[in-house]
Design goal:
By secondary structure, the protein is α/β, with parallel strands linked by helices. It is built from 17 helices and twelve strands. It starts with a helix and ends with a strand.
Amino acid sequence: MNSTELFNLLALLKVDGVGDIVAKKLINHCGSAENVFLAKTNQLKSIDGIGDSLIKKLKDKTVFEKAEQEFQFIEKEKIKVLYYQNELYPERLKHCIDGPVLLFSSGNINLENRRVISIVGTREITSYGTNFCKKLLDDLAVFNPIIVSGFAYGVDIIAHQAAIEHNLQTIGVLAHGLNQIYPKTHKKYVAKMEENGGFLTEFWSNSNPEKENFVRRNRIVAGMSEATIVIESAEKGGSLITALMASDYNRDVFAVPGRTSDKFSQGCNDLIKTQRANLMTSAADLVYILNWELESKKDSCSKPIQKQLFVVLEDEEQKIYDYLQKNGKQLLDIIALECDFPIYKLSSILLNMELKGVIRPLPGKLFEAV
């Protein structure tokens, strides 16, 4: 995207009454933001939902003056701009009708890895939530997912830190412009975040972290991810909004259960009870539902993984391995039936066996011995 098109896009988004949905409609009809401003009145009137009031506002040249300051900031700070029609824009977010026309980014974000999951939850995370989050990313690290969260207190920052510890790319989606960091106490994490990942925002440099911005931010967290995981949440909260947005986008949602008496498990328990989220007790639940296949991490800094010559299997693992050796490829449900394991327990055992390199998952919930 060249400077002229970026400048016109910024100006278009400054037109009163033009949000992401209307902007996309205008751009798709006219071909570009610049063409929107050059279009004749009759051409604009032919677009469904575009009336005289909005057409009048599109003729207001002061929007270019308003766009100039942000354009200068982007140029000066070398901000990367992702346009919804470009390949660098998050692929899944392209399919969300209300996805931002522009995203501003910093750091070293690489979205070629299609395994993107978001982790959200309360800002008042408990030791239970902290331990679960760390164990979850410890188990998922071998799948090399991108971890997305909101860089806030609590679950967000724990997820980002755990991702950094495992050299996983992690992205913080901000509710303000890239000229500041909120909360300020998290500035110490910025450099590490930007080494392998970074920050995304739709907000301009004059935007402050206001309450309504966090709700708008949540649709990006939910929309760009393959699945959203709620670690802990009270009965009401921003993480529940994110989960419902993810569900509306037809994404998988997972919630970590807790005791009925725990304040910060009520939201998760309700999501599970109302069947708006899959129950998550371990990484195996996500791996099973999303049908992830194990691959070596593609990281030049990673040490080569040497296959073990001798693998020690637990009794339960040996029973499953012997069954697969004898019967070949089998469905998970059949393995559970024939080996007499409940599904929730079998999923965890199969993940451990996969990590040991003795079985591999196949499309259609099939597994085979290696």
